[in-house]
Structure formats: C-alpha cells, structure tokens
Design goal:
- The chain has about 150 residues and is mainly β.
- It has one domain.
- It is built from no helices and 13 strands.
- A five-stranded antiparallel beta sheet has the order 1-7-8-11-10, with no helix packed on it. A five-stranded antiparallel beta sheet has the order 2-6-5-4-3, with no helix packed on it.
- It is globular and about 40 Å long.
- The two termini are about 25 Å apart.
Length: about 150
C-alpha cells in the first residue's frame, strides 16, 4: 500500500490526491523529469497549476501516484511512501541547478525547477542530509531531513 504525505516548505498549504484517486494511466505523459532506480522510476509531468507524479514499475507498467500543486516560485517538498522506495519531490529553490543527498542508495536529480529524490525503504527521509547548489557550485540551501 502507498501513502502520500504532502508537506510544504512554504507558509501556504498544499493539496495532494490520496490513494483513492490513483488510477492506471495510458498513454504515458511527457515527463519534465524522471529518476530511474533498480526498483523502477518516478517522473513528474507538469500541467496547468499542478504536478503529476508517475511511478513506473520494473516491468514497464506505470500509473499516476499523486497530483499536487505546482509552486514554481516557492520551494516545496512532497513525499510518496510505499514499496522499496520512497520518493521526495517538488519545486526546487530558485537558482538551484543540482540537488545532492548523503545516504548510500539514495539518488537525486533536478531539472526545469523540479527535483526528485529516491530513498531506500531502510532509510527514514528525516535522516537524509541534502543540499541544493547553483550551477557554479555555490550552496543555496542545505539541511538534514527531507521533510523539513
């Protein structure tokens, strides 16, 4: 079973769709960003006012896991938990060119103002050190715990 928690790193609230709203999708949409792992991949598609998170299984089947508000001028953090991988995703800080994480087995990518981080189920997202950096390597923001 998957659980979706939506956490905002901004003062405003964020809205996400829950498990009952998940439905198989066809055809697969154009993804702005995708992160592949041995357990499958997660990708974000941008639509007017929102982001859709799609999960692709190792066998190639995929489905829309959740929908959240797109806040391109604010840094946001969303969490999708389930299976062997948890996914942390959202809008990156303005000026960020890369996201880096500290935990072995975790992966991260950033493109077009969006980021996705995969966290193995053996690791709590609150234990992960992270940092967003500019193209020249300048630190923009960092911390410990992907949900803070």
């Amino acid at each position: 079973m998957l659980l979706c928690a939506v956490v905002a790193a901004t003062a405003g609230g964020c809205i996400g769709q829950w498990m009952s709203d998940i439905a198989p999708s066809s055809p697969k949409p154009d993804l702005v960003i995708e992160l592949e792992t041995p357990d499958g991949s997660a990708g974000l598609a941008r639509r007017v006012g929102g982001l859709d998170l799609f999960i692709t299984n190792p066998d190639g089947t995929f489905w829309k896991a959740t929908s959240v508000r797109d806040r391109p001028r604010e840094t946001t953090v969303y969490l999708m938990v389930g299976g062997d991988t948890s996914w942390v995703f959202g809008n990156a800080p303005i000026g960020a060119a890369n996201v880096e994480v500290s935990i072995a087995g975790a992966q991260a990518t950033l493109r077009s103002g969006l980021y996705i981080v995969s966290v193995p189920k053996s690791v709590m997202p609150s234990e992960v050190s992270w940092r967003f950096v500019a193209a020249d390597g300048t630190l923009i923001v960092s911390g410990i715990g992907l949900l803070e």
